[in-house]
Automatic annotation (TrEMBL):
Residue ranges annotated for the AAA+ ATPase domain, each copy included: 42-230
Annotated InterPro entries: AAA+_ATPase, AAA_22, ExeA_AAA_ATPase_DNA-bind, P-loop_NTPase, XrtA-assoc_ATPase-like
Family annotation (NCBIfam families): pepcterm_ATPase
SUPFAM superfamilies for this protein: P-loop containing nucleoside triphosphate hydrolases
Protein name as catalogued: AAA family ATPase
SMART domains: AAA
Species name: Thalassotalea algicola
One MF term in the entry's GO annotations: ATP hydrolysis activity
Length: 349
């Protein structure tokens, strides 16, 4: 919607991971280097952890897009609340392995035959497991057992695990010692600093085709960092809305007033605060607090007022949009009329 207004070829802050928009901070570059190192080693596990929205999946997609080695056959698992047997079924599905039988032994035999077949072709298998913090401990152990498949003293499959911080606790459990010994490298992603937020935003808008360095003021970057805590996914959501606001208000550049207005609008939505702390945990005392009926009534009134504010804001935005569309139509009609006049003159001449 705002793309043509700001000279973008496409939306620069889409949530879907896109390797073309990948921006490597020092933490992201280190994680990517570990993944690449793991590929070169052709064995063991690489573990990348980090808070929600810090770019773990984007790193994996970026690495996959850079794999020019035709000898690597890669598959990615994104559904990970799996039992050991379900994990094997998903591995078979993602690698498109055909097999007969119903038992776990049949699945393992089919996977091993597939891996040996790859090895005989001079290829090897790479398994990326996203959201790995959801894997039960016994399923993580099943992954380790898959890594035991070898031929000519060479591993036939290698796994990369990407997950939130809970994954570290799973791996550090006493019964995970054998798995830990297979990890050849690990990295932890962190939110972006103020300077990194600035570079991240400028990188994405440049990738989308915008060349103006003055679209955001210096204070704007600081405020965006404050509101999002430097989490890339939150930055994408927030800045996308800011650009929409700028388009509706016909702003040439984004200043702190625009950012505060958008933050206020988004704060009124029933989707949680933008700048809620990643590490915040509600205490047991607060979570067990009993609210009396009077407080419930007041809470309901507050929610209704928030809904009213949201509807009012939505109506205002639609009115602005209608005005903008009307403005465009008038410009088009004017251009069309002028074009007809010029055509008539040429005919008369």
């Amino acid at each position: 919607m705002y793309e043509s207004y700001y000279g973008f070829k496409e939306r620069p802050f889409q949530l879907s991971p896109d390797p073309r928009f990948f921006f490597a901070t020092k933490h992201h570059q280190r994680a990517l280097s570990y993944l690449q190192y793991g590929l070169e080693q052709k064995e063991g596990f690489i573990v990348i952890t980090g808070p929600i929205g810090t770019g773990k999946t984007t790193i994996a997609r970026n690495m996959l897009s850079q794999i020019s080695d035709s000898d690597i056959v890669a598959a990615q698992l994104v559904t990970t609340k799996l039992s050991p047997d379900e994990l094997l079924e998903l591995v078979i599905a993602e690698f498109k392995i055909s097999y007969e039988g119903e038992s776990k032994a049949d699945m393992l035999k089919a996977i091993e035959s597939f891996l040996i077949s790859l090895h005989e072709q001079g290829k090897r298998a790479l398994l990326l497991v996203d959201e790995a913090q959801n894997l039960p401990a016994e399923t993580v152990e099943e992954l380790r057992m898959l890594s035991n498949f070898q031929l000519d003293n060479q591993p036939l499959i290698q796994s990369f695990l990407l997950g939130q911080e809970e994954l570290k606790a799973i791996i550090q459990a006493p019964n995970m010692e054998q798995f830990r010994q297979r990890i050849i490298a690990s990295a932890h992603l962190k939110p972006l600093s103020v300077e990194e937020v600035k570079n991240y935003i400028n990188h994405r808008i440049h990738q989308a085709g915008h060349e103006d360095e003055e679209l955001f003021s210096e204070k704007a970057f600081e405020l965006i960092h404050e509101k999002t805590l430097g989490v890339p996914r939150k930055i994408n959501i927030f800045v996308d809305r800011i650009l929409l606001y700028g388009f509706l208000e016909e702003l040439e550049s984004i200043d702190i007033n625009a950012i505060n207005n958008v933050a206020e609008e988004m704060g009124a939505e029933l989707t949680g605060s933008l700048n809620s702390n990643i590490e915040d945990v509600t205490s047991d005392e607060n979570s067990q607090r009993v609210v009396n009926s009077t407080e419930n009534v007041e809470n309901i009134k507050d929610v209704l007022r928030e809904i009213e504010d949201i509807l009012e804001t939505s109506i205002k935005q639609k009115v602005k949009m209608a005005r903008y569309v009307d403005k465009l139509l008038k410009q088009k009609n004017k251009q069309f009329a002028e074009s007809n006049i010029n055509t008539d003159k040429k005919v008369e001449d």
